[in-house]
Automatic annotation (TrEMBL):
Positions with a binding annotation for Mg(2+): D10, D12, D206, F218, T223
One example GO MF annotation: phosphomannomutase activity
Name of the protein in its database record: Phosphomannomutase
Pfam family, one: PMM
GO biological process: GDP-mannose biosynthetic process; mannose metabolic process; protein N-linked glycosylation
UniProt xrefs under SUPFAM superfamilies: HAD-like
EC number(s) reported in the record: 5.4.2.8
Catalytic activity: alpha-D-mannose 1-phosphate = D-mannose 6-phosphate
Similarity remark: Belongs to the eukaryotic PMM family.
Coiled-coil stretches: none
Residues binding alpha-D-mannose 1-phosphate: R19, R121, R132, R139, S177, D179
Cofactor: Mg(2+)
């Protein structure tokens, strides 16, 4: 019996240059690969963004497409699942959390504030003490200020204690904000849709270091992890793994 193998790919930095569209060479290669193994895509972005990067036909061009880490899951072109923060937490818990964050920011004494302190997304909240609609200059200044003042780490510690029973993960990234999402809503989320159906699940990603957005799925005992440095490297490593026997 042939092994049932799934090759799962991150998008940014793995199949495309970050934030750019995939090359014809990469897309052709993935179709060649599909003749030998099943191929899936798992990206942190929403489906619209993944379609911009990999093509409008992405849902039918691959066996699985997991956008937002699998909160939106497609198999063979059909949507098989959809999840959201709103449904997962429920309106009451969500409101309690948002109210607390807004009170906390209101009482925060920092040099400047602008607007949009919470951005509500399908699978996460993005919280910014200065407010997301600050200028680039203000953004740079806040980053410098926060390195000394530790506004974000302090706020995260308070939220962690106050909302311990919510089981949330806090991720400080970028210059002015941090993300909040349920524990396990990283790329490992998508594995629930495939783990029973394959003997081997190979994952290819560029940010496999601790703190990187591929780290958890790369480290998962359910996957064979591969660290890549570019789309060309992805193609090279896949050829060695699947096409050169
Ligand atoms: Mg990446």
């Amino acid at each position: 019996m042939a092994k049932r193998i799934l090759a799962l790919f991150d998008v940014d930095g793995t199949l495309t240059v970050p934030r750019k569209t995939a090359s014809k060479q990469t897309l052709d290669f993935l179709q060649e690969l599909r003749k030998v193994v099943k191929v899936g895509i798992v990206g942190g972005s929403d489906l619209v963004k993944i379609q911009e990067q990999l093509g409008d036909n992405v849902l039918t061009a691959y066996d699985y497409v997991f956008s937002e880490n699998g909160l939106v899951a497609h198999k063979g072109g059909e949507q098989i699942a959809v999840q959201s923060l709103k449904v997962h937490l429920g309106e009451d818990k969500l409101k309690r959390f948002i109210n607390f964050v807004l009170h906390y920011i209101a009482d925060l004494d920092i040099p400047i504030k602008r607007g949009t302190f919470i951005e509500f997304r399908n699978g996460m909240l993005n919280v910014s003490p200065i407010g997301r609609n600050c200028s680039q200059e203000e953004r740079d200044a806040f980053e410098v200020f926060d390195k000394e003042a530790g506004v974000r780490p302090k706020m995260v510690e308070v939220l962690r204690k106050e909302f311990a029973e919510y089981n949330l993960t806090y991720s400080i990234g970028g210059q002015i904000s941090f993300d909040v999402f349920p524990q396990g809503w990283d790329k490992t989320y998508c594995l629930r849709f495939v783990e029973g159906d394959f003997d081997e699940i190979h994952f290819f990603g560029d940010k496999t270091f601790p703190g990187g957005n591929d780290y958890e799925i790369f480290m998962s005992e359910k996957t064979v992890g591969h660290t890549v440095t570019s789309p060309a490297d992805t193609e090279k490593q896949c050829t060695e793994a699947f096409l050169s026997q």
